[in-house]
């Protein structure tokens, strides 16, 4: 039997039998109004449930109750006004409305599918000139080698605008970490609402970030500058914390001290604080080494990444009567332009270190102490007397050569374009080279250069006394360590013979603060340490520090920008509309 009406019409027919005809219409209208109210109330409850889930996720249960209630009310409306809905949909206006709804639904479906596919193949591109949003190669290497999942918790208190900025920048950097590996994740924890978690992680200050992996934790607390303003966390802070909680040991770079060497904590023009920061940016530990007070094998107890990240102040210490020795955790020792001779015990300690496969970076200048020159000579590197002068220079000063000739096929200099070596000395291969050793040049001055010997105040080439270029200003040496050779001769061959590596440059100014970012000076210095530390995959051209860029315009240019953007553009749009109306009126 064909149905002849919905529930409302059925109620109407029943009403005819029970009510006078004059009141039937009134009851029917009341029921229709009630159905409309039910529909509006149902939609309102559905909308409220969505907003509640978005704005107050903790009230998930209440939002679910509202959603079910709203859905039931809306379903009652559909059942009560079914015929009216069918008529509205199947009518002429209804068909147009349905087509519009279907088009909107199709558009939304395309947007949703596009977003889903985009999230599945998510990519971020750093288009800044200084690559300020890109992670370093060392960090990428560490993330790719992570052996356990790590999670970072960012604790914050709402209402602190400065901390909100710092938290946002930290979250943006940590998002890059999470993108690089699925083993890293992070979250934000409101300290005011999640007091239990703040107590659990022993966090008392907003802006604290806690890294954890298994039962290991590392807490980064906010730092403040001299004015009391909170400072941003750096990529190095985060990477070091990951190394701590995963139990990975960082390599250590030691700078010899006590002989007038460059100061790795000095911000002066001649200091090496930028060099130290660059090394730390490659996630090495940087430590000063006073060999005169270092103890054999334990000048510093073996330091892992679980110790304080502020290692620049750590110094070797030794019990009374201890023998001088390079620390066992030394990956590379840097000799940065000593002005005074080394003590006999210090020379012995460095020699023992190199004999056992140690790595040394020697930066020499004019008037380098003879004992340092002799030590390099025993390893096949000769320091020439005199000053390098080159017509290819910076600022017209022949004592400041710009080096653009590099040895082919050498990882250290493979990506270097040019470096600036002011007041440099020349290096060459010594007459005697260690057994199994190989000495090769890294960079050279131009063919028109010369080595000025004797009186350097006369900057003209003297064919009788001066040495014609090109001259080598950087030299590398590799050799199987003498101890490995001795072990082989005694039939105690090591599984992998240790290799001694030495790099010497005839200048130390190129890595000082005032020249570190000149040309490729800083890259040459850091790439050399990467090669010595056997981290060749880190050798690269690093982004320069973030530059402050300001657009300076005159008053006339400012007025032009104002009127062209706020006045002319709207007028052009209005004019185009007027022309279109006039043509189609």
Calculate the mean pLDDT score and round it.
83
The number of domains: 4
Structural class: alpha/beta
- Number of DSSP strands? 21
The CATH superfamily of the largest domain appears as: Class I glutamine amidotransferase (GATase) domain
Shape: elongated
Largest sheet: 8 strands, mixed
Distance between the termini: 57 Å
Report the C-alpha radius of gyration, rounded.
37 Å
Name the beta content range.
Answer: 15-25%
Helix content: 25-40%
Separate helix tally = 15
Give the spatial strand order of the biggest sheet: 8-7-9-10-21-20-17-14
- Oligomer designation: single chain
Q: Which CATH architecture of the largest domain would you pick? A: 3-Layer(aba) Sandwich
Overview of this protein structure:
- The structure is a single chain.
- The protein is an alpha/beta fold.
- The protein has 4 domains: 7-90, no CATH class; 137-244, Glutaredoxin, CATH 3.40.30.10; 250-538, Rossmann fold (3-Layer(aba) Sandwich), CATH 3.40.50.880; 550-585.
- It has 15 helices and 21 strands.
- It has helices at residues 7-18, 21-55, 60-80, 82-90, 92-120, 137-144, 161-180, 195-200, 235-246, 273-281, 344-355, 370-378, 482-489, 521-532, 555-584, and strands spanning 150-156, 184-190, 209-213, 216-220, 223-224, 230-231, 252-256, 285-289, 330-336, 359-363, 381-383, 387-389, 402-403, 405-406, 419-420, 427-429, 438-444, 450-452, 467-468, 472-480, 499-505.
- The strands form 6 sheets. It has an 8-stranded mixed sheet. The chain has a 4-stranded mixed sheet with strand order 2-1-3-4. Strands 12-18-19 form a 3-stranded antiparallel sheet, with no helix packed on it.
- Helix 1 packs antiparallel against helix 2, helix 2 runs antiparallel to helix 3 (60-80) and helix 4 (82-90) packs across helix 5 (92-120).
- The protein is elongated, with a radius of gyration of 37 Å.
- The chain starts with 6 loop residues before the first helix and ends with a helix.
- The model is unreliable at 295-314 and 316-320 (pLDDT under 50).
């Amino acid at each position: 039997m064909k149905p002849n009406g919905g529930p409302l019409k059925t109620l109407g027919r029943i009403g005819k039998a029970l009510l006078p005809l004059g009141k039937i219409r009134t009851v029917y209208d009341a029921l229709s109004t009630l159905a409309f109210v039910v529909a509006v109330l149902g939609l309102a409850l559905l909308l409220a449930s969505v907003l509640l889930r978005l704005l107050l996720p903790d009230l998930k249960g209440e939002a679910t109750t509202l959603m079910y209630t709203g859905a039931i009310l809306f379903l009652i409306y559909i059942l009560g006004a079914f015929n009216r809905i069918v008529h509205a949909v199947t009518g002429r206006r209804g068909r147009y409305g349905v087509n519009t709804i279907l088009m909107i639904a199709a558009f939304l479906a395309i947007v949703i599918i596009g977003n889903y596919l985009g999230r599945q193949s998510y990519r971020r591109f750093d288009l800044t000139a200084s690559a300020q949003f890109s992670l370093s190669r060392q960090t990428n290497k560490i993330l790719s080698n992570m052996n356990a999942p790590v999670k970072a918790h960012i604790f914050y208190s709402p209402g602190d605008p400065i901390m909100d900025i710092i938290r946002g920048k930290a979250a943006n950097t940590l998002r890059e970490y999470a993108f690089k590996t699925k083993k890293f994740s992070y979250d934000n924890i409101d300290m005011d609402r999640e007091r239990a978690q703040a107590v659990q992680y022993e966090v008392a200050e907003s802006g604290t970030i806690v890294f954890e992996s298994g039962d290991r934790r590392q807490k980064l607390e906010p730092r403040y500058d001299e004015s009391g303003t909170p400072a941003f966390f750096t990529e190095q802070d985060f990477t070091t914390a990951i190394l701590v909680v995963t139990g990975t040991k960082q390599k250590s770079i030691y700078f010899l001290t006590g002989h007038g060497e460059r100061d790795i904590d000095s911000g002066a023009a001649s200091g090496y604080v930028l060099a130290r920061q660059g090394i730390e940016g490659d996630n090495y530990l940087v430590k000063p080494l006073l060999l005169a007070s270092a103890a054999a094998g334990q000048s510093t107890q073996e330091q892992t990444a679980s110790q304080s990240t502020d290692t620049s102040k750590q110094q070797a210490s030794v019990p009374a009567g201890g023998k001088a020795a390079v620390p066992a955790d030394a990956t590379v020792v840097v000799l940065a332009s000593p002005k005074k001779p080394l003590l006999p015990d210090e020379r012995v300690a460095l020699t023992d270190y190199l004999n056992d496969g140690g790595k040394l970076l020697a930066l020499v200048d004019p008037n380098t102490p003879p004992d340092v020159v002799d030590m390099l000579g025993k390893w096949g590197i000769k320091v020439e007397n005199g000053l390098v002068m080159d017509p290819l220079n910076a600022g017209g000063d022949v004592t400041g050569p710009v080096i653009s000739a590099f040895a082919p096929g050498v990882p250290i200099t493979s990506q270097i374009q040019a470096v600036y070596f002011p007041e440099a000395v020349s290096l060459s291969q010594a007459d005697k080279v260690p057994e199994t050793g190989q000495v090769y040049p890294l960079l050279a001055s131009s063919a028109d250069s010369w080595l000025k010997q004797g009186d350097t105040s006369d900057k003209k080439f003297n064919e009788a006394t001066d040495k014609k270029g090109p001259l080598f200003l950087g030299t590398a040496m590799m050799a199987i360590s003498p101890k490995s050779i001795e072990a082989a001769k005694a039939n105690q061959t090591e599984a992998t013979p240790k290799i001694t590596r030495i790099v010497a440059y005839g200048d130390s100014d190129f890595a000082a603060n005032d020249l570190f970012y000149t040309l490729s000076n800083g890259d040459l210095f850091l790439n050399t340490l990467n090669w010595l530390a056997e981290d060749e995959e880190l050798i690269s051209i690093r982004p320069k520090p973030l530059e402050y860029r300001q657009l300076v315009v005159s008053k006339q240019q400012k007025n032009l920008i104002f009127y062209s953007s706020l006045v002319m553009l709207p007028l052009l749009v209005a004019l185009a509309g007027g022309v279109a109306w006039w043509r189609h009126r």
